[in-house]
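Trying the structure run again after the queue cleared.
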Amino acid sequence: MIKISGLKDFNLEHIFDCGQCFRWNKQEDGSYVGIAMGKVVGMRYEDGALTIENAEEADFERIWKPYLDLDTDYGVIKKTLVEADENGVMAQAIKAGEGIRILRQELWETMVSFIISQNNNIPRIKGCIENLSQILGTYAGEFKGKDYYNIPTPEVLAKSTERDLLPVKLGYRSRYLIETARAVVSEGGLIKKDLAKYTGVGPKVASCIELFGRHNLAAFPIDVWVKRVMHKLYGFEEKDVKGMADFAVNKFGELGGVAQQYLFYYIRENDVDLTL
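Done. Tokens:
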């Protein structure tokens, strides 16, 4: 077990329920259980202290400190964003999700997750990822009576067929995953800078992968929720995606992705449907 005290600008609910990841689930006692970097752990945050169950002390510096982005000063980030937004929208958004941090996730897992996320809702995305992992992924371990599995590698998915993936119920996304996996294997890794060249990776998904898989904090994914908040709070027409993107660059610059997460969480807290 690991325990870290004195954390600031940190809240597990804000981090794990802001739309950036899909393998963490809130428990009845308020803790979260999930799998990342091939490790299955439980996390609890109370009174400024983070407890990580099923983890060794050596894992903190090597895995969980970078994964949770604990070396980044989000107090400075929040101050910068608030000062850049004179109409006060970011101040409202940050207040709603003040403990958000951008996780440093594995690139391939992020790519698979956000290909699956298209025209989907969060509960179903989570279910599809779990089914895919159980069917084709490797065993990661057991925690509190439940077995966990890793997302299948590109090599495994590349050898699969759409029939193999029928139990996952991915629909047209099965072809996207298989063709992308085959491209990644043939290239010897995820090397393309232009992620939109992969099958099933449009501008929005590519931007999500940049932000959550490559930790490019300037990336500003624009989905239905961001369109909604940009319309409601900044006055953009919802179809004016270019205008929103230009605004994000000019207003938030290299912190556009963090701003997007605060905005996403803010609108999520004020709406019911979680369709991405």
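The mean pLDDT is 93. Worth checking whether this holds up in the mutant runs.
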